[in-house]
Design a protein that fits this description.
Layout (H helix, E strand, L loop, with lengths): L1 H21 L3 H6 L2 H12 L18 H12 L2 E4 L4 E6 L5 E6 L3 E6 L5 E6 L5 E6 L5 E6 L6 E5 L4 E6 L5 E6 L5 E6 L4 E5 L5 E5 L2 E6 L5 E6 L4 E6 L5 E6 L4 E6 L5 E6 L3 E6 L5 E5 L4 E6 L5 E6 L3 E6 L5 E5 L9 E2 L5 E7 L2 E6 L5 E6 L4 E6 L5 E6 L3 E6 L18
Length: about 425
């Protein structure tokens, strides 16, 4: 029986890939590994004798309806629902799992391929504010405003809690370093800590912090202050300040470029600074408008700035030129770039988000919810986008950027 199923699965895969090519969906064949398709085929066949077929009996034409259904099921948006509002979501590095954190005090780990909830973790008292996955995909960090164990690090392989930490006012967010050796947590009051995951010891204690960003090498980090006008780049091991960046107004955003050579900061008075960490040389861009928040593209070239009453402006920080303006009624969530840095998603109204092509400025797709959208996140390779909303739902939408779906005739972005 196992041999027959194995042969059948292999042929289902062949037929599946042929249909993927027929429907111009080849990019998904590179995403779905052969073993995953085999597992789906075997699991879905169940005890149906008509699908327990030998190699000679298999025919793509004969089993077209089954294969097409598999494609259609995969291309449908995946809906993950919680009992209460979902605060955030994050994909695993392999793109096969998504973690959702909710006000119902739970964190769920859902398999995107099988569409089954594989893990469920319960918080003791308060809502789960944030959840993130380590770069290796083995650990998950959850945060809450609990007065005990407000930060938890869980090994997803055996569900053991490997580390707990508590801030006086609870933990608002946490982030793993790219190397996986450290985790930084920030509290509601602005207290922040960096812990060594191996020794479980506190490496750095910080005050008046809103956000921490690790360098790609994992040797230093940048701080976004809480209502202050200076940001710092700090060596993790020694605690030495490598560069202090000062603005005339309080800083609303800071992050390190992927090359680890520059830090980009933005302030409430509309000033953007790109500072060389080693030399201190600064490139200044003045938008003359209050910058509420910002997001850097993964290539380090574009900065999407959310401006007060002005929408989202996309700035090329190398040329200082504006690459587009997105106007809308909401802009409550942070703009999000695709991993390839060619697309950006923003909330154009309270209940929908739109995906734009940065180069052409055209709307590619619109994702709607029944309540206010709280966040939008791309998977690591841009295969999916997850949108969370106050309707207790996370919607995972498959993306295919070279299909006819993306050849829309919508009004392009305004150019600066």
């Amino acid at each position: 029986m196992k041999k027959i199923l194995a042969i059948k699965a292999v042929n289902v895969i062949k037929g599946f890939n042929l249909l993927l090519q027929h429907f111009a969906l080849a990019p998904y064949s590179s995403y779905l590994e052969l073993k995953d398709l085999a597992n789906i085929a075997i699991a879905d066949c169940g005890s149906k004798k008509s699908l327990t077929i030998s190699e000679n009996e298999f025919s793509p034409d004969k089993h077209t309806s089954f294969l097409i259904q598999k494609i259609l099921n995969f291309l449908k948006p995946l809906i993950i629902d919680h009992i209460e509002e979902i605060n955030c979501s994050m994909f695993s590095p392999c793109e096969k799992l998504i973690v959702t954190a909710s006000k119902d005090k739970t964190v769920r780990v859902t398999n995107i391929i099988t569409r089954n909830v594989e893990k469920k973790y319960q918080q003791q008292k308060e809502a789960v504010e944030f959840a993130t996955i380590s770069s290796c995909g083995n650990y998950i960090a959850t945060t809450s405003l609990d007065d005990v164990n407000s930060t938890k690090i869980i090994n997803m392989n055996d569900d053991t809690i490997v580390l707990t930490d508590t801030h006086d006012w609870g933990t608002l967010s946490a982030i793993f370093s790219p190397c996986g050796n450290f985790i930084a947590s920030v509290s509601l009051s602005g207290d922040a800590r960096i812990l060594n995951l191996k020794t479980k010891e506190v490496v750095r204690n910080l005050n008046d912090i809103r956000l921490i960003t690790f360098s790609s090498c994992g040797k230093f980090f940048a701080t976004t202050p809480l209502a202050k006008n200076n940001a710092n780049v700090i060596n993790i091991e020694t605690g030495e300040s490598l560069r202090n960046i000062v603005h005339d107004s309080f800083i609303t955003f800071s992050t390190l470029l992927p090359c680890d050579k520059f830090i980009v900061t933005a302030s409430d008075d509309g000033i953007i600074k790109k500072t060389n960490i080693e030399t201190g040389n600064v490139i200044v861009i003045n938008l003359n408008k209050r910058i509420v928040d910002a997001k850097l593209s993964s290539c380090g070239k574009f900065l999407a700035t959310t401006l007060c009453e002005e929408g989202v402006k996309i700035i090329n920080i190398n040329t200082k030129k504006m690459d587009g303006v997105i106007r809308g009624d909401c802009f409550k969530i942070k703009p999000s770039f695709s991993p390839c840095s060619k697309f950006i998603v923003v909330d154009s109204s309270a209940r929908e988000v739109k995906l734009f092509n940065i180069e052409t400025g055209k709307v590619l797709i619109t994702i709607q919810h029944d309540a206010e959208v709280k966040s939008a996140t791309f998977s690591s390779r841009g295969t999916f986008i997850a949108t969370c909303s106050a309707d207790n739902i996370t919607k995972i939408t498959p993306l295919k950027v070279d299909s006819d779906l993306f050849k829309t005739q919508n009004k392009p972005l305004e150019k600066g």
